[in-house]
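Hey,

Quick one before I head out. I ran the complex with aspartic acid overnight. Inputs first:
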Amino acid sequence: MKHLLGIDELDKAQIMAFLDKAQSYSEALSKGDWDKERLRGKIILHLFFEHSTRTLTSFEMAAKRLGADVINWNPETSSLTKGENFIDTIDTLKSMIPDAIVMRHADYGAPKTVAARSGCPVINGGDSWREHPTQALLDALTMKQHFGKIEGLNVTIIGDIAHSRVASSNLQLLSKLGANVRVIAPAVLMPQKLPFENIEKFESLADGLPGSDVVMTLRLQKERMDRALIESDAAYFNEFGLTLEMMDKFAPKAVVMDPGPLVRNVQIADDIAEDPTRSLILKQVANGIPTRMAVLDILVGD
Ligand code: ASP
């Protein structure tokens, strides 16, 4: 495997190879004992055309923990603002021969276009609503650490399924590893087609939550909606926002996850987001580092 462009192109064995390596980095990080020279001499170029907190920072930390150098290119201070087009920008940057590119872009398939021209490994840090493979891997690592398995887990994803690349990558990864996956969304945010036929669809928390082991909330991706699909944040929260009360009533044993950013009191209430016994949200953030170390190790290491 040369690039990591999406979960769609990985089989179960390849997903497990990433997860096993991520688990070993997770253990190594807690002991302070890993090969800190693994990527010494490599230069990784970060091309983030969209904003990011967790993904960008954890890719940078992962690279530096492995001894690589990182360049954070910034579209807002680049020649794109002078009229240079995307392809010329990519051809310019690739001529400097980075050892890998990690990129995020709003356009469908942009990392694939770059992979075809770059000559180095390209890692997708999020493209459009299509894929966010390292998020799905770190989510799976978090579930596996908590439950000891993925197969057979009942995972319910609530929110803007239609516009979420996190939903898209997670639905594929979890289905490939044998979890039972459900989605809950208002009809306007439910895609017509889901990647696997056995993913169950629900339009209310009361119908979709019972039996869940994991409940994952997602942000309303307003930047990808071409018009207002939701009456108001308050109306959405009222019907689809996850609260402690709804969890206690319909999924009392489940844990809660969210890829962030948390838009509090729209997708998730403070009380459940901060519940120390049930929220794995900060664990997900922490797991971004060993997961991205694993991906860089496998794709960029000699
Ligand atoms: N951070 C995630 C992403 O980049 C989720 C989000 O932005 O809502 O897709």
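The chain has two domains: 7-132+285-300, 133-280.

Talk tomorrow,
K.
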